[in-house]
């Protein structure tokens, strides 16, 4: 088992910055460290390495910090069922699917605008700029 560590060591081991650790601490995602009188340093529990890894992976999957906090709380709650986690993941899948649809629509609209452009006319008469100035594109 790893020994308690300073914030600098925790940052190095987990691959996040010191300020990020402080931010997550302020948001309640990781516990405030214990303070050893006489040492001058606060010591973080090694379990925070696992929590920071969890936070980073969950962020990369699109979960917000509030959603990550909820997931961490579910992990800590012995009465929580996997179904609670699954429902949150399913909601995230729906959210990502919606974002993908929105991005495809944006790409299609931009492609149509690009097709209207003749590179030879002055930018003051550019149909892309004119389309963006209209109420409806």
Describe the structure.
With 137 residues, the chain is mainly alpha-helical. Helix content is 61%, strand content 3%. It is built from 6 helices and 2 strands, in the order H-H-E-E-H-H-H-H. It has helices at 7-14, 18-26, 47-60, 65-76, 82-115, 127-133; strands spanning 34-35, 42-43. The N and C termini lie far apart (60 Å).
Give unreliable regions as ranges.
none
**If strands are numbered along the chain, what order do they take across the biggest sheet?**
1-2
The main β sheet shows up as:
2 strands, antiparallel
Global geometry: elongated
Got a strand count?
A: 2
Order of helices and strands: HHEEHHHH
| Helical/strand content category | mainly alpha
Radius of gyration: 24 Å
Task: Report the average pLDDT across residues.
Answer: 89
Helix content: 55-70%
Distance between the termini: 60 Å
Which SSEs are present, and which pair or pack?
Elements: H1 7-14, H2 18-26, E1 34-35, E2 42-43, H3 47-60, H4 65-76, H5 82-115, H6 127-133
Antiparallel strand pairs: 1-2
TL;DR of this structure?
The chain is mainly alpha-helical. The protein has helices spanning 7-14, 18-26, 47-60, 65-76, 82-115, 127-133; strands spanning 34-35, 42-43.
């Amino acid at each position: 088992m790893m020994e308690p560590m300073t914030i600098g060591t925790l940052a190095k081991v987990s691959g996040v910055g010191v300020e990020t650790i402080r931010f997550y601490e302020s948001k309640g995602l990781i516990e405030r460290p214990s303070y050893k009188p006489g040492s001058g340093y606060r010591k973080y529990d090694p379990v925070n390495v696992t929590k920071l890894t969890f936070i980073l992976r969950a962020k990369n999957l699109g979960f917000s910090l509030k959603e990550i906090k909820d997931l961490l709380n579910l992990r800590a709650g012995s009465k929580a069922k996997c179904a609670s986690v699954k429902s949150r993941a399913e909601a995230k899948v729906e959210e990502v699917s919606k974002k993908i649809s929105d991005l495809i629509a944006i790409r299609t609209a931009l492609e149509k605008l690009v097709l209207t452009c003749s590179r030879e006319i002055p930018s003051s008469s550019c149909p892309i700029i004119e389309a963006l100035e209209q109420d409806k594109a």
